[in-house]
Batch of 4 targets.
Target 1
Amino acid sequence: MPKNKKKIGAYWASSCGGCDVALLGLHEKILDLLDFADIAFWPAATDFKYEDLKGYGKNELDLTFFNGGIRTTENEEIAELLREKSELLVAYGTCAHQGGIPGLANMSEEVDLFDTVYKGTPTSTNPENIFPQESTKKDGQTLNLPGLQERVRSLDRVVDVDYTVPGCPPPPDLTEDFLDLLVKGALPEKGSVVAGTKSVCDECSREWNRETIDELVRPQETEIDPDKCLLDQGIICMGPVTRSGCDGSCPEANMPCKGCFGPPPEVEDQGTEMLNSLASVLQLGEEGQALEQEKELLSDLPDPIGTFYTFSLSNSILGGKVSEGGENDRT
Amino acid sequence: MTERKISIDPITRLEGHGKIEIFLGDDGRPEDAVLQVPELRGFEEFSRGRKGEEMPRITERICGVCPEAHHFASTKALDAAFSTSPPPTALSLRELLYNSYIFADHLLHLFYLGGPDFLVEDGNKAERNIVGVIKALGEEAGKKVIRARRLGHEAIEIIGGHQVHPVTGVPGGLSQGITSEEREELVSIGESAVDFARETLELFREKVINTEKFGSLVDDPEYSLNSYYMGLVDENGEVSFYDGDVRIVDPSGEEYLKTSSAEVMELLEERVEPWTYVKFPYLKEVGWKDFQVGKDSGVFRVGPLARLNVANGMKTDLAQEEYERYVDHFDGTPVHQTYAYHWARLIEMVQAAERINELASEEGITGDDLRTPVEEPGEGVGVIEAARGTLIHGYSLDDEGLVESSNMIVPTTSNSAALSISIKQAALGALEDGMNDDQVLNQVEMGFRPYDPCLACATHSVDGGLDIGLKIYDNEGKLVKEIER
């Protein structure tokens, strides 16, 4: 056993658990990780409780993989606690990085969520209008629940993040690469997104002829040519505005990229950039008419939010309907 | 009155967030225990307005442990909503991926999540985990576990494009097929999966069934719930994961009803409680009778125990042999002992492994007819057996194919009432002597682990779309806020 064995932690906030499965997806390599470090907190796989975590000293964990966005008051409290206890805090996966798919809820207010979930569904019977409460008395005892916050935030909007490993979930080689750098003490500058620096198109094997197209089609409406660029076929693919590092795994499986790695370094907002890309491949007629037609395109396009901001709504310039004072709270 | 309680927070080795509060009486003995689920992401709400064909890739983010279940329940709902059905090759490939998932997910539970309670005997909290399991079994056996799980995920990746969150399900089929090299790989994965699953059952017999400590736990009527059970069965009434009819049996094992999957939504209602974000489904006709089981209470269970209780047997030979040993042991079905979930799960793992093999060996599996064209969008329901039980997705699509409303009933939600009762049983049993150290409290957690709960799934179900006002009550039931829409 090496001297000074490290301690690592892993945690899920508002997420699906796929990032925890991705860590297990190191498969045999997880044994190497265990030679290097002990797991000192990981609710999905070990029995350490919040009390144990609270008992650790400042920075006692050498590194924590934090997955999930911040949705509840508990998510925020644990994020702050893990920041204090961790020398390095890694935003692991799309939700911690960009808010992820749960960030689509930023178009809804809490009242809508509750309404839909606990009252509106065909199978809900709730004549007494019972909704979850932050504090309830049950047989004389108090039961507390964390509250939902107004909006989903990515981890970096709540605490300082040292590194980001993107992806929904991060692919196995990306996690391996990150751990190799960690073990070698060769991690890049703090604040880095540890993935590719180009776009998914850069690593996609499809033939891209930069064709102009007449109309957009949806995957079920067409036979998808497995060798030809999806955009050339009129299928919206977020590849051009998405950071590389996944080996183009969705286009390789004959489906379009949905943007889970977030924007490449030079792109600020995935959705607006994608609209620009689309405008340039669609035949939008004469210069000057283009803007009008772009607007028309947008208004005709079904579900632009879900199409262009599947994973990144909470960090986008739109922010969502439920934004704080209508402003984007970039820190 | 001062409150005396013990909190287990968070509960661990499961998917998602939960905590257990145990309330003690004046004599220090436990009187009640509740499982609270402290999270809600609201998929339900934000699915509305999305393009129907995106739902398999959106809803699988409900759960990263069982994304394959959501991906294909969703794809099946779309098949129905677009009035199409996949060609035979696509159907077989979906089922092949699906059985690889059942195999890998059941394996995950035994060795990584629930199993360490048995496999790391007398372990403390630092040891009761996969690392402890590898130590206990030896590195060679530990590596075999990791390898078998990897192969399961590689099979998923070959057909689904990713090891986690597959992407290839489209209404009417699959976006890609497999090559003959990939087929050979899948056949070999199937073969080693069968060997591994059988060895795992031997291990389970040695470490659990045939031991004084755990064998008696599996048999103990104290940890039984005579509930209703729900699961899918094929045309022969045998356990089926990807497709089939919904069969429900009552606590005596008599068929309560059998129905095509599209009707299943009509059978259920869900109860809301103010102290948790999870809802409590029950059989509508039988009714909600609080947290109780029996013929008069609509509480039902899903998952491996339930599937073996509703079926006449297993689909494959080796699994059928194992099933017969199981039925002999319990003198027939239904088996109500909650810890028997662990055993039933491993019998299913054998079936899943055998099905990988059978499907990969099919003549037409490398065919390239993978898609059936879609018709106009409408409504559709997709039912599938997730590792944890019956999973139902129902969508209503508008003329443009956008989601108007959706309703998803997920297995851990279906089990949520039973889970609460089992945790109370475990707490009253384990804490009887007033001790509450780490190992005793872990016995309380062992009350939920048979169900292999996924609390992330459990709190992201359902969507409706009714325009109604919201009344907010305080904990005394007094109206404090009313919001009109």
Target 2
Amino acid sequence: MTHLSARGLKKSFGTLQVLKGVDLDIELGEALCIIGPSGSGKSTLLRCLNLLIVPDEGQVFLDNVLLTNPRIRPEWVRQQIGMVFQQFNLFTHLSATKNVMLGLRHGKKVSRAKAHEKAVFELNRVGLGSKLDAYPAQLSGGQQQRVAIARALAMDPKVILFDEPTSALDPESIHEVLEVMAQLAKERMTMAVVTHEMGFAREVSDRVVFFDAGKILEQGSPSEIFDHPAHDRTKSFMDKILR
Amino acid sequence: MTAVPTDLGRRSPPVPPPARVRAARPPFPSRSLRRAVPIGTGVALVGVAIYVIVGLLGFYGVGTLKTPLAFVLAAAVGAALSVGVVAARWLDPKWAGRILTWAVWKSVLQAVLAVFGGLVFLIGLGRLGIYRLGFAESQIPALLKGFYTSLEVVAVIIPLGFVLGFLVGWARTTGSLILRGFAAYYVDFFRSMPPIALIFFASLAAALALRNSGIDPYTAYLITQWVGVVALAFHTGAYQAEIMRAGILSVPAGQTEAADAVGISRIRTMFVVTLPQAFRISLPPLGNEFSSVIKDTSLLSVIGWFELSGTALNLVSEAGRPPESYLYGSIVIWVEAAFLYFVLTYIVTRTVRVVEDLFKVPGLEAAHL
């Protein structure tokens, strides 16, 4: 069953067309990886899916609800679709627990006690039960990113979008973050991951999308894309990164 | 362990339940009251600092307060404060810990010591015969009256200027072209006007407007006086607007993007994400601006305010003849006025320091060199 889908997404920044008509379907409970060269528009695509960037043309549907309808509040849309950023973007003036609580308190208007309970639960879930009161500046990169994942999870999103979640991390931290994400995939959380971690894409994802120059070039199971790419551009990309 | 949130859908929680989350705290009527106690105590602390200073002046037979009464009152307030501290600790450890830290006590102690040291210095000079102590003491009651007037004016200018600066600084960072344009004109205009011209102009324009209005002359006079004060608040507001703008711009775009991503509205994001971080950056320059505008209040003497400088000017003109005593008198009076300006500025800048401590973020302290 198609959960989140995009139809004909187009987006330009000035004269540069970043998305050139993208159709994408994400199934319920699917872990989808989006790979491709830098600057191909992967991040823009993710941001268009939760309307952090409003697409120039095209539609986004969540469970057959048209999200790009101007009568739908973008705040509501973003509460349904979680997002994890490359640079973590934790609120630097708040402790880990408060970071996770903020969206619940001020987005979903949940009571303080309930939000606190939920925040503690989600932080334990990502293995940070001992860092509840730590501030972002006191945490390592991997820990910060796990707080960011807990922050997204706390909203009970229908989909989580990961925008290169490990690109700003050292190898050890990459491992701890990927472990949390693999666990989420195992629990059948619907997720779309823009990543350069080919090992993760190959092992954990259900489907891989190869994205280049604002278009989806090809998609399929990890083995199809990694071992038998159909397109020349995909082949040359794989040759460069899998050597 | 409390119940796990039920709205988790099909996911199964893989982790053990968390241990006890918060230390148990005795019940108390309401959260706002629990917070009000330590905040109120903080405000009272500043009040006591002022009171002790005035009391010390009273000890040397000056000012309006009788010595024993001043000290009894100061002691009473101090005792009440101690009770407040204990109560606040018991009620909410976090807030009490944050507000009533050593930093606060240190500030008060430093303020008292600085003022006391200054007094000992001045009186010491008098005892050494550098100037006539009797003359210096005789000027203090009038100067203290000027000091209170300055305090009164500052108490209007700083809050008003802060609110203006906050709103205009915010307006300059919004997407609305109208707000931005209006705010830019405001800043450009009030930053380029010399404050003395601004005060004259505002007060004289008010006088002109009220000339045939039928308001009784004394009320009209008071209005023109206070219009001059408001003009000075607009002046400092322009500077504070730029400080606020710098603070707001220093918060990375990723912060608002993250707030967007969890569905917090723009206006709430401003209050819960951007401003707390902007304030942390803006507070030191704001303290700078506060201390600067305190001394700008001396310009109000040109429209007839008998605040500290106006009083000093008046006293100097009456300091007496022959010429050499006039020279001595002027020096003594201005040293005393400067000292009182120092007290006024010190109270405000120390308060800003305490607020800075409140906005401190662990892990983001300044570099230790």
Target 3
Amino acid sequence: MARTLSAGRRLNVTLVYAALVVLSVVFFSPFVWLVMTSLKPEAEVFTTILPKHWVLIQYKDGLTHFPFMLYLRNTMVLCTANVLGVLLSSSLVAYGLSRIPWKGREPLFAVLLSTMMLPAQVTMVPMFAVFKTLGWIDTLLPLTVPAFLGNAFFIFLLRQFFMTIPGDLTDAARLDGCSEFDIYRRVVMPLAKPALATVALFTFLATWNDFIGPLVYLYDEGKFPLSLGLAMFTSQYGSFWGQLMAVSTVMTAPILLLFFLTQRTFIQGITMSGIKG
Amino acid sequence: MKERSYHLLTSSPPLLHPYRRRASRNAQLTGLAFAAPWIVGFIVFFAYPVIASAYYSLCSFDAIRPPRFIGFENYRRMFTEDDLFWKSLWNTLYMVVAGLPVGLAASLGIALLLNRKVKGMTVYRTIYYLPSITPVVATSILWLWLLNPEMGLINIALGKMHLMQPGWLTDPAWAKAALILMGLWGAGGGMVIYLAALQDVPESLTEAAALDGAGKLQQFRHVTLPMLSPVILFNLIMGLIGSFQYFTQAYVMTSGGPQDSTMFYALHLFNRAFLDFRMGYASAMAWVLFLVTLVCALLVFKTSARWVYYAGEGR
């Protein structure tokens, strides 16, 4: 009996590993296909599976037709502004909504939560009209200024985190005569570093990947970020798969690198995103 | 004034500390000051646009000349004259009804597979997770190539296995399936959320069930699944909202083709607003999108009372 059980168990374990390995191949092969296509000369793209000649010509050609450094710079400007803006504004608001007892705090929080329910499409047209009136179309302002006025999701995330900081810590500072701003800056912010790191990382990723925003507000190619630039490049070089794959690889690599450098923050963010209440 | 602050003091316990008394007088102003950035943002980027959008939806508006009031004309046209509106709504519902459950099931399935004490778990987890953080424009372009009917990896693989090789994005009958397949590649995003929740399911519970004679399947059905149900609800609602706004992939890969088979609601709306500059019509479409999403979300919430189990409630 014990023997057959253990044999059955061994079979079970083998099946699980087989499934995991097959899935790994399925999930990973698109990346292999991406990089392999980018390393073939044009003549081989439609004829071989493995490159016969491993070459870097697609990167060289792709990056001369595709102003990668310019788009990267634009993306980095957007990312920096958004990360700074969201960190600063969302943490201040979250502090006001969690650590200071005042009337209107709870209703305001309820309003904040309800704003997340509305599809962005509803506000898209009037926002465009507002920015047009301000003369901000085809500038980076519509894509950066809103970040400095708080982001509902990240305010929610930080508020939940601030709530977990024991009151004794801030009470002590208050007894010493610290102002609320001092407590925010000297006590709460240092304690919230892991949560802030998560917010910074997610904001960075969202900005790096944002497509609709730049598509709506930017017309001048010189201001395009990578996401929009790559999509436009595709419409022009749609059949040059080698170059497309080379450029896509270059756009993806920094994000994957970032993931490997910040894995712990990622995992933390996932468990923190409010799913646990 | 004094009465009011007294009420505040008794209603929230931390305020009972005497030294807070002085602070609470200023608390109103300080709290408001901290929340000010968002209050300004709320008015400028939410409250005003929502009201303006409702008004525009009753107007003919091209963002150049001032809006001209036309009553419910936009809505009438949408429902009675715009075939593409119905087509795009149908395509979008297809993604919600067919694509979303498949994606949720895949995420959950992989998470369950990984939740055993397997060696090298972090390596597998990373491999499954990476596609979900790959920039969506890059993913779209990569998949255009993977789904290429002649030289794409997918049809090469299907050919080697002597299976049917669909035209994928070139065939109206297969285009949505192709996008759903691409969506499955991102299942790792949901997987990590399930995985985090699974690790919170106390082993004592499954062990107790096993002692009572429950088989693996019964343990899953009666212990693991109920414990996971709040997270399934969370992923379902987020997925619902996301599916109704499906845009970037269709914009980059197909522009809605072939034969409008991937013309999704958000894409149709975007084209009307920023291709034709029919901003009033687009606003009306946005409100219909909001209502449809809301009704679906409410339906889900309503049924959720029957299938979502909150451990804290203790029934």
Target 4
Amino acid sequence: MATTVHEPPKIEPGSLPSHGSGNGGWRNLVPADGDLRQVRNSSPPPASTGIWVGLAAITMTFAAFTSALIVRQGGAPDWQHITLPPVLYLNTLVIIASSVTLEISRRRIAAFMGGLRDASQKASPARWLYITLFLGLLFVAGQTLAWLQLTSQGIKLSTNINYSFFYVLTVAHALHVFGGLGGLARVIVKLKKAALKRSTLDATSRYWHFMGALWVYLLLLLWIKL
Amino acid sequence: MHDLSAPAVHHGAPTGFIRKHVFSTDHKVIGKQYYALALVAVFVGMVLSWIMRIHLGWGSYAIPGLHFLSKAGAPGDVMTPEYYLQLMTMHGTIMVFFVLTTAPFAAFGNFFLPIQVGAEDMPFPHFNMMSFWVAFVAFVVLIASFFAPDGPTLGGWTQYAPLSAVGAVAGPGQGLGVVLWAASIGIFCISQLLGSLNFITTTLDMRCKGMSLLRLPLSAWAWFITSIMALTAFAVLMPACILLILDHVAGTSFFVSSNEVINGQLLPHSGGSTLLWQHLFWFFGHPEVYIAIIPGMGIVSHVLITNMRRPLLSHRVMIYAMGALAVLSYMVYGHHMFVSGMNPFSSLAFSFPTLIITIPATVVVLIWLGSLYGSKLRINSASLFALGFISMFISGGVSGFFLAQPSIDIMLHATYFVVGHFHLVMAVAAMFGIFAGTYFWFPKMTGRMMNDTLGKLHFWLTFVGAYCIFMPFHYLGIAGNVRRYQAFTDDYLIPLIPVHKFITVAAVTTGLVQFIFLYNLIHSRFWGAPAPDNPWEGTSLEWSTATPPPHNNFGDKMPVVYHDPYEYNVEGASADYIMQTSPEQLTNPHDEK
């Protein structure tokens, strides 16, 4: 067995990365033959990639639910049309509005971070975040109202398969929305402490917009299929 | 407000015991925790297999103390038919999820992926910590089902509906046992999703200066490809588990059809699709096979190259082949359902990609064999287990050609032929990959060398033992021996009992041999010879840092990479091997670009 102790790595002086998050970002396929000049000194913040990875997993989960719905519907003798609680349509407007307010907020904070604060904007950049958080909570409250309306009519998860899918999909979505609300709360806290990273803000807003788009998709699915 | 280039990961070294060793965010500690979990799980799984094998060889033999596990399941220490199935289910579930997924992927991947890409840590260390502890909770929930009133589920690791979805009426363990099983697996899915999120982001965003994607070692590539599969596959299994639990606790009818009568009882469910479960499960299940084996392919390539002192015939084709296996693994899942009653044309559609997937698998094997041909391989425990991996993968893979064809599969389905096939190609091969990785990386993980003589003894006994156990399975299958039978009373099965006795002796012996490994592992951990930083004269980044690596992996200076991962025996170079961090200019490198 060989026991040679190799010399410690030689580090090129003056070209050390400034931090530990790496520099070989995924778009960075350049270096060969020791030529490091073309290598960018900072990789994309992990949150900006991580959020897409996370959204891919959520997409797969809801794709699985969707395919389950389609397979279960095929040839099922017990498939009965149901009427969706009308409050869902109002909730759809609320979650779309929350995406708009979040986008306004994101742009203002981005400008604020970049030192481009418009003198006419006297309000705190967090104001629109509070509005988004409120709209998010309103959406969850609206969904809860829809469930309560159904249960008060004696409609449970097991009443028929259409309602089973209705409850499963809406609850699964609402749980993911809770994650988004947590993210928004975290952004507000970090903003207050002046410790907010741009990548955190962007990742949170992508997640929230995705929740809005996912809800519109689910509503269409429920409306068409159920 | 904020500097966009601020460090993503900068958690200082913890000092307290709890944060250092228990709830640690250090990827190296988490890797070791996963390894420990796999070690405990494999011991439980192995003991279960011993109990089953003894019962299969000598059905009336009382196994002392078995009634402590379950009074109802093993009255007088002799197990009931149902209890045999319950132990079999737990054996499969524990081995597939908590050993074959955790050890090669989560354990070694956690420890070495960030180091091999040149990062301080994973980008989301708290998610990483949660990943392990969530997996731990999943294991506890699964083990808890042993202590449920009527024991764990007996439905097999595939939990086919409708029997898995109707509750206690389907047999012992089919009530609470299934709920605990589905909860455990659902929780495990969350764990692997958190882990995959970190693995993917680490590979894409955390590479050090100069580390382009093609400069990643093959082990890092394997973990990267596996993490993409784990992300997409476990994200599908989790909703399936949720729907299964709802069929139990909420009375829904996702998987149970109308007018189902089980054990004389008419069930209240209506309209469910039993095939739906199989579709959801196998969409996860077949990629899971590759989640278990692809990390082994990466580890074995890495180990062999270091010991051959030359790169593979093609680094790039190896990566493409592993990628092709990953993509195709999603298109072949229906080959598990040839006899499920689905449309026969679907069988054809799934048979074709199943035969196609043998092409990248064959390419992988040919690259190994071609690279080995004429090489002066350094023989040590790690390289032997790497060779053993290739042997098992070929032996188990060849039987896959037969099973891929629906017409032959109709005869061989649910026989011991299938059991032999998947144990060799997936389970034993993956175990050999785990052993190769352990002997190879143990010095870096612990700072001490393992005993090579004991390692070689461990290899030869395990290699012979594994073939003695699993080769006869093929014979049994061709002879018509159906799997999941706990006793062989039919005329045509009685002559096969001596074969079962032989397998049992081989299984118990091979299992006992593993205690040589366990002894070597524990003894070397505390009393092994101190390991140098680069004992195998490797080139990748894990050999550039101290042994064991410091908290932030590379000390004060982050590495800079100048070379492809496997520059061995380069013409005109100053040494037999050029490390990735060496600034030496090579006039004639092994060029993969």
